[in-house]
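Hey, resending since the last one bounced:
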Amino acid sequence: MGSRGPTKKPPELEALHGNPGHRKITKKIQFEKLEDVPKPPAFLDSVAKKEWKRLAPKVYSLGILTDADMAVFAAYCESYSQWVGAVKAIQARKPDKNTPAPLTFETDKGYQQQVPEIGIANNAKKQMLAYAREFGLTPSSRLDDTTAINTEDDEMSIMDFISKKPKIEKIK
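The structure tokens again:
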């Protein structure tokens, strides 16, 4: 059985989101910060390398991509590449541009079965999204209620507004 509660965030991601619960942010292990945006590993294919080059500068600038995160980020890029490849293979099954790709085929015994590319695409997508959450690459992993309200330009803060009693005037 897994651990309870939400998945822990890296300290850098917690710092970006703020600390609304005012809990102590602990840094357990310090990893070496890379001097520059790392190049993609040689074992990645061209689609994975393109994704690496697209996202690595953004993740690096947040301080999340360290020497210890290289393999996990490479796994994200590889999952992305597998997902893209499977989706392209599904699209290649289209008889023409205007017809959707067949998602099933008939077995030699007459049963309808899902094309294997759909399962590959779904598994790669699940892996890709799991890795993406670790680096704050999904909208929900970036969402934070404390950044949704900007009170700097308001005349009074939200807490002032909540603590004041409304003025009720009697109608004559």
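The chain is about 45% helix and 5% strand.

Sorry for the duplicate.
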